[in-house]
């Protein structure tokens, strides 16, 4: 039996579409103009709705920022907590790096806003962001491998940074599918990690 969409169902669908459009417009403006220089009126105009309509969805610009970035932070934190449950091995290293990449590629439009407007993000998330930073450091230390040297720890940090730098560089990535981009970045990160000391060398 075919389900007939009621006007009420259509209203809910439209509300979801509008929120998505608001998020997209806000990310574009935050990335190009910065969070502080972007007004809710400008976001509403780009979406093609009134400012009052935007306020129906979000009570403030910070509320909107939390909605956009909150999902990314929750997803990335879920991956970073896995290092407390998984013992390091070459296989688990590649698996967790892949999971990390899945999140940052999914939310890659969010990255420039986080990097450009650190103060605004800190004000919106406070202790939650500090916890995320601590977990990121733990992730990098885990990537350094067993018995890491100082060199290993630097290379582990570099392997993560090369992912962020590539996504934030502004290069045209439209010719690559998400799967292709994942492969390229995973290979780049593991190439950096390949320069670590071997377990035998690290004990010398």
Roughly how many Å is the radius of gyration?
20 Å
Let me know the largest β-sheet: none
Mean pLDDT: 85
| Helical content (DSSP H or I, runs of 4+) | over 70%
- CATH top level assignment of the largest domain: Mainly Alpha
Report low-confidence residues grouped into runs of 5 or more: 1-16, 200-204
Shape: elongated
Whole-number count of domains: 2
Series of H and E elements: HHHHHHHHHHH
If helices are DSSP runs of H or I spanning 4 or more residues, what is the number of helices? 11
CATH architecture annotation of the largest domain: Orthogonal Bundle
Organism: Kribbella orskensis
Keywords: DNA-binding, Transcription, Transcription regulation
Protein name: TetR family transcriptional regulator
Pfam families: TetR_N
Description:
Residues 39-58 bind DNA. Residues 16-76 form the HTH tetR-type domain. Keywords: DNA-binding, Transcription, Transcription regulation. The protein is an all-alpha fold. It has 2 domains: 1-59, Homeodomain-like (Arc Repressor Mutant, subunit A), CATH 1.10.10; 65-202, Tetracycline Repressor, domain 2 (Orthogonal Bundle), CATH 1.10.357. It contains 11 helices and no strands. It has helices at residues 7-33, 40-47, 51-57, 61-80, 90-106, 111-116, 118-125, 127-143, 150-168, 178-193, 199-202. Helix 4 (61-80) runs parallel beside helix 8. The chain is elongated, with a radius of gyration of 20 Å. It starts with 6 loop residues before the first helix and ends with a helix. The model is unreliable at 1-16 and 200-204 (pLDDT under 50).
